[in-house]
Specification:
Blueprint lengths: L1 H20 L8 H14 L5 H10 L1 H11 L10 H17 L7 E6 L5 H16 L7 E7 L2 H9 L1 E2 L9 H7 E4 L2 E4 L1 H4 L2 E5 L11 E6 L8 H14 E9 L12 E3 L7 E4 L16 H29 L11 H5 L15
Parallel strand pairs: 1-2, 1-7, 2-6, 7-8
Antiparallel strand pairs: 3-5, 4-5, 8-10, 9-10
Helix pairs in contact: 1-3, 1-4, 2-4, 3-4, 5-6
């Protein structure tokens, strides 16, 4: 019983976040969320979840602090350097080769946090074009995140020196400017990147993408939400599009939608052609109880339609005999029986 009470309070805390911050966390893995709640309870020196729930109701600042903690902002430039080397040497040349003259190269990075994961493919793409002395086509990079504070930081593109350890001095000088002890992405790179607040589980996706990079986002979601997000990625990518996931992430059961770019490139996937109707992720701002009731109603509606269809089918199979004023033999000399009735043999 005690465990049931804890669960009830946990879902009530999520409802507070949904009402106050307009973000639903019920599609996230509960254990991750519970650890974040426990962290906030320790900081506020609160012993029980029920007391913390009351505290949330009375302190909007704590609601915002918990919300920020829920949005885990762990990020860095070039998370996996070897993957980005493969991207620059093998994947980007293929993508550019599929583009018509003047067509933009479109990249989307959902869950971009403070921007490092948008500027990384931007730098990689610009370096590839410069090395091959190619004309720089229009480049459109979109970085989105739930966290408005992170988006503001991403737009500024300003980073402390300890965040730039992966850059050589020459690379650092080429893509960054020194500003008051920090480093800022040069304007030529920033102007190619558009940042916006976006809910991956609720808002419409971008489309006609050549590259979609989403690293360390899926690992925080429940399997059903992961599947829906993968389906949305499939819809968003162009036929030759490539998906980049984090080192700990896979496409799961969505092998009908994506295939590995190559056997040794485990994080890179190519889009498969499919005739399946694309599933667009909609608003999931409902509690598990509401979601369950919706599923029950849909199931009952489907069963009712099936039952009605069965009854109609059975009625159509009944053989009808016409009521005639005289013997059939006298009529069949003048008219065919199909003139009066169409019979159907029962199966």
């Amino acid at each position: 019983m005690e465990g049931a009470k804890h669960e009830q309070v946990f879902w009530q805390i999520l409802r507070v976040l949904r009402r106050r911050m307009d973000v639903d966390f019920t599609a996230y893995k509960p254990m991750t969320l519970k650890r974040r709640i426990e962290r906030r309870m320790v900081l506020q020196q609160i012993d029980s979840e029920a007391e913390y729930l009351v505290y949330l109701h009375n302190h909007q600042a704590e609601v915002e602090a918990l919300y920020q903690d829920m949005l885990i902002g762990v990020t860095s430039f070039f998370r996996d350097p070897s993957t980005f080397q493969t991207l620059g040497r093998e994947i980007l040349p293929r993508l550019v080769a599929t583009k018509a003259a003047g067509s933009p190269i479109r990249v989307w990075v959902p869950g971009c946090s403070t921007g490092e994961e948008v500027y990384s493919p931007a730098i990689c793409l610009l370096e590839f074009l410069a090395e091959d002395s190619l004309t720089v086509p229009p480049i459109q990079l979109f970085g989105t995140d739930l966290n408005p504070r992170a988006i503001e930081s991403a737009r500024a593109g300003l980073y402390p020196p300890d965040a730039l350890g992966v850059f050589s001095p020459a690379r650092l000088d080429h893509f960054f400017l020194s500003v008051n002890g920090c480093y800022q992405i040069r304007q030529a790179v920033r102007e190619r990147c558009v940042f916006a607040q976006h809910n991956l589980l609720k808002d419409p996706p971008f489309s006609r993408l050549d590259l979609l990079s989403c690293q360390n986002v899926l690992i925080y979601l429940e399997p059903m939400a992961q599947r829906k997000v993968i389906q949305t990625f499939h819809y968003a990518l162009s036929p030759h599009g490539v998906l980049l996931l984090g080192p700990s992430e896979t496409i799961g059961t969505s092998t009908d939608l994506f295939a590995h770019a190559e056997e040794h490139k485990r994080q890179l996937y190519v889009k498969k052609a499919t005739s399946a109707w694309p599933l667009v992720v909609g608003d999931v701002r409902r509690s598990p109880e509401e979601q369950y009731q919706t599923q029950v109603r849909r199931k009952m509606g489907w069963l009712m339609k099936r039952r009605i269809g069965s009854l109609i089918s059975r009625r159509r199979q009944i053989v009808c005999w016409p009521v005639l004023p005289r013997p059939v033999s006298s009529l069949t000399r003048r008219w065919k029986s199909s003139t009066f009735v169409e019979t159907r043999t029962p199966t």
